[in-house]
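User: I'm preparing a small set of examples for a lab meeting where we compare how different chains pack in three dimensions. I only have the primary sequence for this one, and I'd like the structure in token form so I can line it up with the others. Please keep the answer compact; I'll paste it straight into my notes.
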Amino acid sequence: MRELVYYVAVSLDGYIAGPAGQYDAFLFEGDHMEAINKDYSDTLPTHFAAALGVVPRGDRFDTVLMGADTYAAGLPDIVSPYQHLDQYVFTHRPHDPADGVTFTERDPIDVVTELKGAEGKDIWLCGGGRLAGQLIGEIDRFVLKRQPVLFGAGIPLIAPGTYAPRRFDRVSTREFDSGVSFVEYVAV
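Assistant: Understood. Below is the structure token output for the 188-residue chain.
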């Protein structure tokens, strides 16, 4: 069965972006980038991968889920950020159609249940924190790119909610000279 994987960069103090949605404090250079390009090429925005000369392999993910604010980070220039993936944006805002992007007001849990029941590769939860909070019971795996920065405030990894405690086991940790570490957890 397909897994829902929350693969995301996170600051030491637990934020995936700063107060205004900024993420430019995260490190985009360093030895951890080689691991991203090699092991997580599916998560590179199409235009960014092309600029790096990286071809997304399509071996890990074939679908990406985003909240409206995560999707809006590339607008107005980039309307289809992951052209190599099926893209779902959960929003109540009107959007112009974009090639390969499905805008939906449906319950994210219903959509994920359908996606998990269909054939395919894993499903990448790209962000944001509110969407992760809505889908917390559906997340099978976390891959956290722990960054050596502090934001002090901003968008939390998971929005506060009324979900029940749930255990995850750490299955791997990779440390990089850049100070970034990848930590992977799987639901018990």
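A couple of notes for your slides: The radius of gyration is 16 Å. The first strand starts at residue 4 and ends at 10.

User: Perfect, thanks.
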